[in-house]
Write a structure and sequence with these properties.
Layout lengths: L1 E3 L5 H14 L10 H13 L3 E8 L2 E12 L6 E10 L8 H15 L5 E2 L8 H10 L14
C-alpha cells in the first residue's frame, strides 16, 4: 500500500529514517538527532509544499520518499526535489521504489510541477541506484562532491 504520511506514522517514519542513516556510509558518521527527524516529519505533514509518501508491506512501513516543491535560485520556475527516498533492504528490487516515485511525481503534477530532480547522496548501492533512476527515465546531469569528515 502506498499513501501520504499521517501524524500517526511519525514514530515509524523516524525509525525507518534512522535505518537509512545507519546504512548510509556517508551519513552514518553524523550524530543522529531524533528530535530533528520528528520535527521534519511534523513539518512535512503540515506544509502543502512538502510531501511524504509511504510504502507498506503486510502493514509494516518499508519505504518512503520525503520531498518538496522549490524554485531555482535563478528563476521562479518550480521543481520537485526529494530530501530522501529509502526502501528497506528486504524490499529493494520490488516495485515499491517505482510506486513511491510515481506517487510522489503524481503529487507534484497535481500541484502543477512537471520537473523532478533527484539528488542521490547516501551512497547506498550507488551503481544499482544509478541504473534504477536512469531506467525509470531520469537523466544523470552532474555529481555531488563532499570535503571534510
Amino acid at each position: 500500500m502506498i499513501r501520504f504520511i499521517e501524524e500517526s506514522d511519525i514514530k515509524n517514519v523516524v525509525a525507518l529514517g534512522k535505518k537509512l542513516h545507519e546504512e548510509s556510509p556517508i551519513f552514518s558518521g553524523n550524530k543522529w538527532n531524533e528530535l530533528k527527524a520528528i520535527q521534519m516529519a511534523e513539518r512535512i505533514i503540515s506544509n502543502d509544499r512538502e510531501c511524504g509518501i509511504l510504502a507498506f508491506s503486510e502493514g509494516k512501513l518499508v519505504g518512503m520518499i520525503l520531498g518538496f516543491i522549490d524554485t531555482h535560485y535563478f528563476s521562479d520556475d518550480e521543481f520537485l526535489s526529494e530530501y530522501f527516498v529509502y526502501v528497506e533492504q528486504s524490499k529493494r528490487g520490488s516495485k515499491l521504489g517505482i510506486s513511491l516515485l510515481q506517487a510522489w511525481i503524481n503529487w507534484g503534477r497535481i500541484n502543477g510541477i512537471e520537473e523532478t530532480w533527484m539528488q542521490y547522496s547516501t551512497n547506498i548501492n550507488l551503481e544499482k541506484t544509478d541504473k534504477f533512476f536512469q531506467k525509470i527515465g531520469f537523466n544523470k546531469i552532474g555529481y555531488i562532491y563532499k570535503r571534510g569528515t
